[in-house]
Amino acid sequence: MHQTLQPAGITAPVALPSAPSRPVRDVEPPGGYHPGPWDPARSTIVAERGGLKVRRADCAGTRADASYLVRKMYEWRGYEVGAPQGAPDRVTLMAGDDGGVLATITVGFDGIDGLQVEHLYPDEVERLRAGGGRICEFTRLAVDRELQSKELLAMMFHIAYMVAHRLHRCSDLLVEVNPRHVRFYERMLGFVPLGATRTCARVNAPARLMWLSLAHAREQIARFGGGRGEQARSLYPLFFSPAEESGIVARLRAA
After folding, report:
1. 128 domain residue, yes or no
2. pTM of the model
3. pLDDT at position 22
């Protein structure tokens, strides 16, 4: 039975979202930057699955690679996107093969500058803080249209979870999603919608705030990760096994 979770202090009122059929437009980032082949010397591999390698984007070059994919995929969907922000309270992950970057996600922490979701949902974020939550957010998620799959999305979410929960001890995760993807995040990962639909100025599109208890995510990974309990209708059976997670966490700590 699906359990409805609620964040402390807040009363709240997942098939992969399909891609449009129109072709991807060429994107010309500022300065004429174009990503090149994957350079293994630019950062340490923290995980590998099915020929895809995951790294931290921990220098200007790798962050530019990740930003190029974000711009390409967001502009293809008709969203606006700002420049990447390298900051000590953000960690960007990127997955790719020898041909280049194929997926990216950024984990943001509740530091001196607050959270990006706070611009649109200040009251909801403040209530979580007041309830004692250690908050983080996932932003700038992008997956190359040729490789959109539940497996790749599960891999990126799981490693982002490791950064947020295992390394930084965050308890509460917030994301802004397009309203048409709300059911996906509810069903596939256990997110709970918070607040009303609003217009996100960063991408000039409607957004809905969603919350996930990372303790709930930890329980689901322990139960289903690595393909155990495949009958679960969620992304969690596609996450890494607990043993694989331990190895990835060790590499993330050393990276």
Report:
1. yes
2. 0.80
3. 33
